[in-house]
Amino acid sequence: MASTVSGGFVNPFVRVLILLALSLWPAQAMGQTGAEGAQRTDRIEAELVPMSAWAAPGSTAVVAVKQTIRPDWHTYWRNPGDSGGATTLTWTLPRGVSAGDIVWPVPERQRISGLMNYGYSGTVYLPVPIEVPASARPGTNLPLTVKALFLVCSAEMCVPDELTLRLDLRVRDGAAPLNPRHGAAITAVLEKAPRPAGITARVALEDGVLTLGAAGGPLAGSDPGPSYFFPFEGGIIDHPAPQTGAWGPQGLSLRLRPGSETRATGLTGPVGGVLVTAAGAWEIRAEPGALPAGTSGSGALAAAADADAAAADPDGGSDLATFAKALLFAVLGGLILNLMPCVFPILAMKAAALAGSAHDTRHARRDGLAFLAGVLTTFLLLAGVLLVLRATGEAVGWGFQLQSPPVTAGLALLMLAVALNLSGVFHVGGRLQGAGSGPLSRLPGGLGAFFTGALAVVVAAPCTAPFMAFALGAALVMPWPMALLVFLGLGLGLALPFVVVSLTPGLLARLPRPGPWMERLKNFLAFPMYATALWLAWVFSRQTGAEALGPLFAAGLMLALGVWLIGCGQTERGFGRRGVFHLTAGVAALLLAGAALIVAARAPAEAAGSAAAVEGAGPTSAPWSTAAVEAARAQGRPVLVNFTADWCVTCKINERTSLATAGVKAAIEGSNAVYLVGDWTRRDDAITAELQRHGRSGVPLYLLYTPGVAEPRVLPQLLTEGVVVEALGDGRR
Predict the structure, then answer these.
(1) Helix or strand holding residue 281 (H, E)
(2) Per-residue buried b or exposed e for 480-517, using 16+ beta carbons within 10 Å of the residue's own CB
(3) Binning pLDDT at 50, 70 and 90, where does residue 676 land?
(4) Which end of the chain is more exposed for a tag (fewer CB within 10 A), N or C?
(5) What is the pTM of this model?
(6) Residue 470: Cβ within 10 Å count
(7) Which of 518, 511, 367, 377 is nearest to 449 (CA)?
(8) If you average pLDDT over residues 583-587, what whole number do you get?
């Protein structure tokens, strides 16, 4: 007689993945006999052990799957958290004998690279009740066999280990003493295991915050100390987010960040899980509704520290070490960001500003520091908005500003205005000393340098460079002061080359002296800005549809007319005339441009097509979804996932040079792989959640799922065709 006990939440995709991997895993992964009936692999040793010396007929005996896990490896709880899969037990039992569910011990919280997993390390017992029939004859043995499927993971990889464990359970009359080797340990697990305790619990979702209140039973009358809620199911809460709250005379309340499913569907029913406090752990079932009275007002709850965080995160070791590493990577990522394609148009403005003050040390120093201030201020503002939105449960990531069609349209017009300024249609700011007179002095000064830095961040920040992935992923789970310092590190890295040149007289002296060539350079550098304006208009059309382009083009036309009229007015004033007519008409045209921009921004977005297959030289693609990944993996096929956005220039260059090629198409067809594209051009909470699951806050992100491997391989952010083809070839072997 066979029965299966899963012990709770296990993603069906994880089940299929583990079973498929087992069929491909080499012989060394299979169980080998250890001491006293234990089975082992290179990562884990397991055996089936009894709590008591024997079992009486008609009684409930307890046996346990004992796991001895090697250092730096772990297995999982019934809800594994952000990755992994729960241990499953498949029993083969004599007739009349039945096995119950696993009695799960309280898991550890294992934070790894921005993810939060729930699992076990070291030695752990998973008790299971066994119902012994009254017909069992004393003096005989009941042969118990269980096929235990463990997903054993380290920080680098996961391995599915299946071990077949056996135990002959003796049957005798009378009360049995504890097994001398394992009885006390199993008893301790059962005594501490979470169980219902007369606690009344309610849960509410308001303004993007999930609040859990629990009162009564053992919670009443005292400070519960550090407290934490483990949900039984994934997607209910954002696992890595901190849990804060308060306590009162009757219990406690916790503020939780909603998970992806809660954000998508809201509260659809009761929420079950384990509430852990300093006094113990209890199973609760929180019904939707107002929080019980007396769950706040007495003080704030102490923060619950991650169990064994240093061992679970070899990249960190401690919060301070993780912060230091994130800060270093942020500065390096900001430096490399200067080389990313999305920053090239802004380099034009930097070059113009630097050339204008190259041989005026005081002005060069002013421009360098003003540019740095603009970069840092804008990074702080964007980071602050991002952290606030995420704290309220919004699924946003780095580059969120270009997911908004009104912001994209506004930036397109702003880039057009900057280009027209560089073309000499109108001018902003005063004269630069030593740069001549008239149109040669129309480059802005310190305020312009500050503005250039701000614009560089707004346009360039959606791109991510190497080293930025870890820095952004770590920052978004850190306390906000540390997170803001990491974002400031990104800004410092982005601004550092320009600041170093502006503060170094030796480097400035190598630049040509100001002269008429500056006007030609400035006019030439307008064209990258025109290109940026056109690119942003294209992104806007992809977000909203072709119908909205008409009002946006009208806004651009009126903007150009308005600044031309203002430029004419400035020329009139240069000849001693007032130029009131031109200035008034220019302002009116700008107002009309603003009205047309509002019309464009409010245009209804066209519905996205249901299919995203693309034919041509490159591979055929389909839209990404977790269901599509699971379906392909269930068929044993590799899966290449491209998370991209139309406003990410790096993404588009990678696609043109390294993904949409005949070589990659042949490699995908040869490996029978599925190519999925996750388009983040417009806001998509599911894609945001998947990026977060892999420690990312922006695109590009390239994942390759290989049959037999639990976690996907993350490909480099800067791709080549050879890297993709080689990865697909490795996945086929």
Answers:
(1) strand 280-288
(2) eebbbbbbbbbbbbbbbebbebbeeeeebeeeeebeee
(3) very high
(4) C
(5) 0.45
(6) 21
(7) 367
(8) 88
Give the DSSP H/E element, type plus range, for residue 23. Answer: helix 12-24
Q: Which residue has the tokens 């590009």?
A: 700
Q: How far is residue 129's CA from residue 291's CA, in Å, rounded to a whole number?
A: 35
- 34/166 Cα distance (integer angstroms): 13
555: left (phi over 0), alpha (psi -120 to 50) or beta: alpha
Q: Contact 518/356 with Cβ under 8 angstroms?
A: yes
Give CA–CA dist 167/264, Å, rounded: 46
Contact 678, 688 (CB under 8 A): no
Least confident range of 29-33, 272-276, 354-358, 543-547: 29-33
**What six digits make up the tokens of 125?**
């017992």
The encoded tokens of residue 539 equal 């992104």
Backbone φ, ψ for residue 430 (5° rounding): -95, -170
Helix (H) or strand (E) run with residue 321 in it: helix 319-337
Query: Which residues lie closer than 8 Å to 156 by C-beta, 6 or more apart?
Result: none
Question: Encoding tokens for residue 643?
Answer: 């998370």
Rounded to an integer, what distance in angstroms lies between the CA atom of residue 541 and that of residue 252?
50
pLDDT tens digit sequence for 65-76: 999 999 889 999
CA distance linking residue 310 with residue 155, whole number of Å: 12
Half-sphere exposure of 519 (CA within 13 A, CB side): 13
27 — phi, psi (to 5°)? Answer: -60, -25
| Cα dist from 655 to 210, 276, 340, 341, whole Å | 39, 47, 15, 13
Structure tokens at 45: 């040793």
CA 347 to chain centre: 29
- Residue 59 tokens read as 């009684």
